[in-house]
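Lecture 7, part B: from sequences to assemblies.

Below are the input chains for today's worked example.
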Amino acid sequence: MKKASRVAAPETDGTPSEARRKYDPEQTKRNILEVATQEFSSMGLSGARVDAIAERTNTTKRMLYYYFGSKEGLYEAVLEKVYGDIRTLEQDLPISELDPTEGLRKLVEFTFDYHDRHRDFVRLVSIENIHGAKYIEQLKSFKSRNASVIRTIEDLLARGVAAGQFRPDIDAIDLHLLISSLCFHRVANRYTFGSAFGRDPSHPRLRARHREMIADAVLRFVRKEA
Amino acid sequence: MKKASRVAAPETDGTPSEARRKYDPEQTKRNILEVATQEFSSMGLSGARVDAIAERTNTTKRMLYYYFGSKEGLYEAVLEKVYGDIRTLEQDLPISELDPTEGLRKLVEFTFDYHDRHRDFVRLVSIENIHGAKYIEQLKSFKSRNASVIRTIEDLLARGVAAGQFRPDIDAIDLHLLISSLCFHRVANRYTFGSAFGRDPSHPRLRARHREMIADAVLRFVRKEA
Amino acid sequence: MKKASRVAAPETDGTPSEARRKYDPEQTKRNILEVATQEFSSMGLSGARVDAIAERTNTTKRMLYYYFGSKEGLYEAVLEKVYGDIRTLEQDLPISELDPTEGLRKLVEFTFDYHDRHRDFVRLVSIENIHGAKYIEQLKSFKSRNASVIRTIEDLLARGVAAGQFRPDIDAIDLHLLISSLCFHRVANRYTFGSAFGRDPSHPRLRARHREMIADAVLRFVRKEA
Amino acid sequence: MKKASRVAAPETDGTPSEARRKYDPEQTKRNILEVATQEFSSMGLSGARVDAIAERTNTTKRMLYYYFGSKEGLYEAVLEKVYGDIRTLEQDLPISELDPTEGLRKLVEFTFDYHDRHRDFVRLVSIENIHGAKYIEQLKSFKSRNASVIRTIEDLLARGVAAGQFRPDIDAIDLHLLISSLCFHRVANRYTFGSAFGRDPSHPRLRARHREMIADAVLRFVRKEA
DNA sequence: CATGAATGAGTTTTCATTCAT
DNA sequence: TATGAATGAAAACTCATTCAT
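Predicted structure of the full complex, as C-alpha cells:
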C-alpha cells in the first residue's frame, strides 16, 4: 500500500532551490490523467477501476478525487485532454498553401496517421458512442474543434473545384465523414478484423497499403472526371 | 416488483403431446436473449447489469443463470445470436448472377442497409473490440461467415476485371474493409457525429444521401479508368 | 464476519411444515429496523454507521440496501415506524368518554409516559430537527397523525369550556405545544440536565414528581378561575 | 478556490507597538469560531465538515488545527463560547429588586427571548444531548452557570412565598426545568412543529402569543390560590 | 421450472488530519 | 503564520451469483 518512490520533479535548471520539489500538482495531475487514459480506453468507463488507476499512479486514490471529483469527472478530463491533443496538432497542418489535391491527400494522410498512432483516442470515441456521447457533449472544446476541420475541408473543396480538380457537388461534412470512416474503422475494429481475416491491420506492410488505399479512395471520390 | 404475467406458451393446439405445457424453455431463452441484446448493446459488457436484464424479462434471474451459466455466458450467447442472424441474411443475396458493377453496388447497399438497421450488431462489434475481441473469437460462426463474404467479393472482382470494368490490383479483403468502414462508422459513431455537427446521421434524408455516396465511392474506387 | 446464528423463525403453530423457515423477509426487515432505530437514535443520521447496524443484525449489510435502498432510506423507514407506533397507541386512548379535566389529565399522563418510555422516539425527533425536518416531511403518515391529536384536544377543550371547567380562550395547538414541551424536554435533554444539576431526571422518584407537576401545571393553565 | 482577501487586522493606529501587525490571531480565532458555530449547530458534530468550515473561513484548514487541535477541540471551543455568552447576559438581570411575581415573569420572558434569539445555542444543546453531554461536562462554565440560575429562582420563590404570592411546595430546580422546557422546545423542535401544524413558531405573532402563554402558565403554576 | 431472499467480495467515495513549501 | 497538496483509514454502496422454498 505504500508507494515505493515519488516522481522525480523536473529540474528546471541548475538552481538547487528549484530542484527536487516534492509537491508538483501539475505533474501529479498529468500523471493521473495519463494512467487514466490508458485504463479508460482499454476497459471502458464502467470497466475501468479507480483502484487500478490509482495503483499505477505516483499518488493515491485520494488524489484522483481531490483533483477530479469522481470517476466520471476523471473520465471527462481524459476525454478533454485527448480531444485537445488532436486539435492542437490539426491546426499546425499547412494545408491552405498546398495544391488542393495535394492538400487533400495530406489531410487524409494526417488523419490516417493520427488515428493509427492514437489508439486511445479511437477507443475512447468508441466508448463515448456506447454511452450515447453524453460526456463529450459537455465539453466546450468539442464542437469548436470539429468546426475547424470542416472549414479546412470546405476551403480545400472550394479551391479544388475552382481549379477544375474536384467535383462541385460534394458536401464538406459528408467528405469528413468519409475520411473519418476509413481512418477510424481499421483502428477501432482491428481486433475483430484481425480475428476474422487473420490479418493484423496494424502490421507495417498492411498499414502502408491501407494508407495509400484510403488516400486513393478519397481522391478518386472527389476527382472531377474528364 | 411483482411480474404481472408470464409468457403463455404457444399451444400448438390439437396435438395432445405438445399441448398443456406450462413452460416453454425456448420461448424463455429467446425472451432473455432479446432483453440481454438490448442491455449489452446499450451498456457494454461491464456496464450491463444482470438485475436490469432480469427485470425486463418475463422470468427471473435464476433462469438466466440456469440457461446461460453466467453474465459472460449470456453475453456470448447474445453475440452468437446476432452473428447468426447476419449470416442467414447474407446468403440469400443473389449477387453471383448480376453484372459485376451492379453486383458490387448491391453488396454495398446491402451492407449499408444491414448496418443501418442492426445497430445492436454494430454496437456489439464495437464493444467486442473494446474487449480485444476475446469473446467473438470463440464463435465458430464468426470466421466462416467472414470467409463467405470474401469469397463473394473475390468472385465479383474477378468477374469485374474480366469484364474490363474493374481495376485488376484490388485485394478482396481490403475492399471488404473499405466497404465495412464506410457502412460501420456512421452507425457506430453516430452520437459523436451528431453531437459534433448537429446532424443526426440516421435521419432519412441524410441516410439516403450517405447510402448513395458510399456506393459511389466504392465504385469509383474499383472502376478501371479509360 | 460470519454470522454465528440466524433468527429462529417464528413458529406459527405446531405444524412442522411451517416451522424453522430460514427465509422470513418480514422478520429480517423488522430486525434491521429495530437495530437501526437504536443506532440512529443514539448516533444521529450522520453519526450512525451502516456497518455498525449490519453487525448487530442477523443479516448482512447487503440486505439493508436490498430492503431500504440507502442509509437515508433506512433512516426514513425508522422514522416512519417510530411515528406509526405512537399514533397507534394514541388512538386507543379512551378520552372522549371521560370528564374533561380527567380526560386532559389522562392525555398529559399518556404523553408523559410515552415520551418517558420511548427515548428513541424523542431522540429521533431531536435529530430530525437538526436536519430541518426534511426527512419527516416526506412521510405521509406524519401530518395526519398530528391532526388527530389536535382533534382530541379540541374536543376536550370544547367539553371543558361547556362544563365550566376550562377557560374559553385556549388554542388547541398551543395547548398541544405546551404539553409536548413539558413532556419532551426532560427526556430529550436529560443529559445536560443531569450534568447541570446532578439529578438524573429518569430516576423513578423524580420521574413521578415530574409527572404530577406537569399534569398539575397543564390543569392550572386551562382551569377557569372562580 | 483562491481566497480573495485576508482579514485586515485592525490597526489601532498611533501605537507603534500594535501597528503593522500583519496577522491577528484573535481575529482569526474569532472568525473560525463563528463559522464553526454555524456549521456545528446546523449539521451536528458528526454531520459537520472540517472542510466546509475552513472554506467559509478567512483562513485555511491548517489554522483551524493550529488553534483548536482537532474537530472535537473546535466543537468544544464552540460550546464554551456559546455558554460563555449566555452567562454574561444573565448576570445583568436586575431580578432581585423586583416584586416576586414581576421578577418571575421577567425571568421567564428573558429565558424565552434568549432561546428565541439564540437558536445556535439551542441546537447545540440538542446536539450535546445526542452525544450524552460528554463534551459539555468538561466545561467549567457549565455547572457554575446553572447554579447561579437556581439561586436566582430560589430567591424568587422564597420571597414569593413570604409575600403570600407563591405556593410553598415548589422546588427551584423543578421550576427551572418547567421554564426551560417551555422556552426550549418551541425553538429546538420548530421544524417538526412547523411541518406538523403548518405553523412557523418563529413567526412574530405566534412568538408573542407563546411568550405570553408561557409566562402565564408559569405564574399560574406557582400562584398561591386564595 | 420458478421465485424472491440472501450473500460476500469488491468498488466508489468521504473525511479528519498532516506535510512541504 | 500561512497555504495548497497529500494521505490512509474508514465509510457507503454495488454487483454477480447462490440458496431455500
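Note for the exam: The longest helix of chain A spans residues 140-162. Keep this in mind when comparing with the next example.
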